[in-house]
Design brief:
six-stranded antiparallel β-sheet, alpha+beta, 8 helices, 2 domains, 293 residues, single chain, D-amino Acid Aminotransferase, Chain A, domain 2, globular, D-amino Acid Aminotransferase, Chain A, domain 1, nine-stranded mixed β-sheet
Length: 293
């Protein structure tokens, strides 16, 4: 097969032929739960965590998920095996989507892949990440739909991207939820001057597997609010499925602040992440290992 395949409701078919009914609740109401995992060296990374989050969010949002974890794992493995030879890097994102389906019909389950976005993430490792605050979108922990749920109702991220694009081309848009910053592609972490990672409160940001990995790799971490302008903040990091962990160089939020890039804590964590997945996560995007001091 020379074209990527997609799984949709019991069938593998060419991605171009995978269509969703206009009556599907995922289209009509945006009632869509999504997970985005990736492979390293062809192997899904932290897949059990992704499955657990996906199933939890489906249950929270009353989206039926009929397939077992074993079945979802089998489908992902088959899709990777079929599509991996078509990917230049031989690594893929695996996106799993569930919706309630059309009225009176069965729920929808879809799984697709796309190549790792090398060109999108390469500047993170050659120039540093630029963050730009686009605005606010408040979610409260007791809202019907909390900030932590991974879903496809992403209109506020679309608006944030367009808001930032003209003034700060290439910047990653940041949306503030009650003062806590988050992005569509990963979690924001500050590094205290003593080396402790300051993690965002989980109730105010999307649930991030990458954030959990980073906290496990860190020498010290704690949940804590921070200010971009505080002298106690020595570095800022961005961590996400597609790229692992990257170092933030510039933040635009009214004024502009620059941070040491790449900072020493980032270097240690990037080395640790590379060791965990068995490849240099910087070299994967740049072709050059730049992690050494």
């Amino acid at each position: 097969m020379s074209v990527p395949l997609t799984y949709l409701n019991g069938r593998f078919l060419p991605a171009a032929d995978a269509t969703l009914s206009l009556a599907d609740a995922g289209f009509v109401s945006g009632a869509t739960i999504v997970d985005n995992a990736r492979t390293y060296g062809g192997t899904l990374f932290r897949w059990a965590d992704h499955l657990a989050r996906f199933r939890r969010d489906c249950q929270r949002c009353f989206v039926p998920l009929m397939s077992s974890d074993d079945e979802l794992t089998r489908l992902a493995g088959e899709l990777i095996e079929r599509n991996r030879p078509l990917a230049a890097m031989q690594d893929l994102h695996v996106v799993t989507v569930a919706t309630p389906g059309p009225p009176g019909g069965p729920p929808t389950l879809a799984m697709s892949t796309y190549p790792i976005r090398v060109e999108r993430y390469r500047p993170f490792f050659t120039e540093g990440v630029t963050l730009a605050v686009a605005g606010t979108q408040s979610f409260k922990p007791y809202d019907l739909l909390t900030a932590s749920v991974k879903h496809r109702s992403r209109l506020h991220w679309h608006i944030a991207e367009r808001t930032v694009a003209a003034k700060h081309p290439g910047a990653v848009p940041v949306v503030l939820n009650r003062g806590v910053g988050d992005t569509a592609i990963g979690a924001i972490v500050a590094v205290h001057v003593d080396g402790t990672l300051l993690l965002p409160p989980t109730e105010f940001v999307q649930d991030s597997i990458s954030l959990k990995v980073l906290a496990e790799l860190a020498e010290r971490s704690r949940v804590g609010l921070f200010s971009w302008w505080s002298d106690d903040v020595a570095e800022v990091l961005l961590t996400g499925t597609g790229f692992g962990v990257a170092s933030v160089k510039t933040v635009h939020h009214g004024d502009t602040r620059s941070f040491e890039w790449p900072g020493p804590v980032y270097r240690r964590l990037a080395q640790a992440w590379s060791g965990l997945v068995g490849l240099d996560i910087v070299e994967q995007f740049t072709g050059l290992p730049i992690l050494s001091p």
